[in-house]
Amino acid sequence: MRIEIDQSWKIEKFDKATIIAFSNGTKGSVRISQRAKREAFALLESHYGKSTLNIFRIFAAVITLLLEKYKLQPNRIVIDEEYSGNGDLIIKYIKSSLSDEIDIVSGNIGKSSRAHVEAYEVFKKKRPAGFNILESEILKFLRDKYLRNKK
Asked: Taking the model in full, what pTM does it have?
């Protein structure tokens, strides 16, 4: 199964919630609140310091949680190029939590993509997100996947 993933409102912007959506014939989305994003950044900054890499870690974590919540097992993922030139890092972080067998690429999926439409409509509150990522969920994920064996 091939899926496309898009984001509406950047992870690193704290004034609004971020929506990450997928499409593969069906569609769905997750919402991460401003507070959950702030707490996620604070946790990573306490371990890694202020770093642009924290953006990619959290973005990858939310994508992975999206896949888990919808029980998706794609063999190919196309992620809209949100962070130009950093797609390989995001892919590395996702693969560290998923199977290396999954083909993940970063590219321009376009505004006509169903994933883009889903993310935008949920962001504009034309429909609710399929799932909300709780603060406790993102913090647990980050601790388990990225902070093991870190001081």
From this structure: 0.94
